[in-house]
Amino acid sequence: MAWPVFAKDRLIDLSIGLARDSLRITSPNPRVGCILADDDGTILGQGNTQPAGGPHAEIMALRDAAARGNSVAGATAYVTLEPCSHHGRTGPCCDALIAAGIKKVVASIADPNPLVSGQGFERLRAAGIEVEVGPGAAESRELNIGFFSRMIRKTPWVRMKMAASLDGTTALDNGASQWITSKPARADGHAWRARSCAVLTGIGTVLEDNPRLDVRLVDTPRQPHLVVVDSRLETPLDAHLFIAGRTLYIYAAEQNDAKKAALEARGATVIHLPGAHGKVDLAAMLRDLARREVNELHIEAGHKLNGSFIREDLVDEFVVYLAPKMMGQGFGMASFGPLTELSQALALEFRSTEMVGPDLRIVARVQGRDQF
User: Global pTM?
Assistant: First the structure.
């Protein structure tokens, strides 16, 4: 298939689109797209990063060009992140571009990984390749906000999902909560699960609802890890959480060697991280998850654990679905406070508002939280 000729300022946009196509597959690697084009803007090859251990975007683009019988000598590579310069699960992409005879690299943004962080650009320039950095930087960073967070802050990007009635009720006093929002909203929530590295819940939700918390309502090539905050190791051994092949982390505050052994025999990894008042140290847990290569952490928990994360200022972004219903008395979205002054409220900025079926989805970010 022959591609049309594109204006050069459009090629990085197309690369961003390729990176977006890999949204659910690259974890824990960043989502990257690459297009190889000649001086006229004719695409010679394209690709995006594959699942961890597989080829990066640059390698996929080179392979695509070769499969189409296109020489890339003298071509320009439009890539959404600095080509890697180190040996990790795969070899250095900058070396592959050099060997292929690429004459110029247009990259959106530098890789925040300390193992790369400008070294890829240096190696390309040392080989006589012209390097331009900047086009598409904001889009690439936003697409990889979790990867940047893990590399720079040493914690995942924490996203909390909540579903409620218009008056903020997430469950009736008797605990009934299925289903407040519509099937389209639930499917959309599964799409947010699918892009995350890990889904987190609390032991209260496990005991009350016995959820699976996997991705079922949208197609995905992988299941995110599951994280359970379980201070006293109360997770039942027959819980639906135990799904073959899925990584399950259980964080506890209390020591219980017998229960730990039983849970680990079911395939879970139990981590002891005691904090204040017999609870799990949530901040330490986030740092530990970053060490375990979790970029985006997706929280679906009850009002108590939600409140704990908010009270400790550990949430970066909220995805809230509001159903066109009034439910009155019941459980709210998050239990924290009471505040004594309005100035103590958590200040947010709306990133998007969109109808999903009959429900309203609001994406709100903590003000300034993405400035790192």
Answer: 0.94
Give a three-class secondary structure readout of the chain.
CCCCECCHHHHHHHHHHHHHHCCCCCCCCCCCEEEEECCCCEEEEEEECCCCCCCCHHHHHHHHHHHCCCCCCCCEEEECCCCCCCCCCCCCHHHHHHHHCCCEEEECCCCCCCCCCCHHHHHHHHCCCEEEECCCHHHHHHHCHHHHHHHHCCCCEEEEEEEEECCCCCECCCCCCCCCCCHHHHHHHHHHHHHCCEEEEEHHHHHHHCCCCCCCCCCCCCCCEEEEECCCCCCCCCCCCCCCCCCEEEEECCCCHHHHHHHHHCCCEEEECECHHHCECHHHHHHHHHHCCCCEEEECCCHHHHHHHHHCCCCCEEEEEEECCCCCCCECCCCCCCCCCHHHCCCEEEEEEEEECCEEEEEEEECCCCCC
β-partners of residue 48 are 33
The two beta strands, 33-37 and 76-79, are: antiparallel
Determine the Cα–Cα distance for residues 322 and 360; give it in Å rounded to an integer.
Answer: 5
At position 312, the amino acid (one-letter code) is E
Prior bond of 179 cis (ω within 30°): yes
| Upper half-sphere CA count for residue 118 (Cβ side, 13 Å) | 1
- Are 251 and 281 contacting, i.e. CB atoms less than 8 angstroms apart? no
Q: What is the pLDDT of residues 64-97, one digit of tens each?
A: 999 999 999 999 999 999 999 876 667 789 999 9
pLDDT of 301-328, one tens digit each? Answer: 999 999 999 999 999 999 999 999 999 9
Helix axis angle for 8-21 and 57-67, nearest 10°, is 110
The set of catalytic residues is 58
| CA atoms of 27 and 227, how far apart (whole Å) | 16
Spatial distance between the Cα atoms of 60 and 80, rounded to a whole number of angstroms? 14
> How buried is residue 268: exposed, middle or buried, by Cβ count under 10 Å (0-12/13-18/19+)?
buried
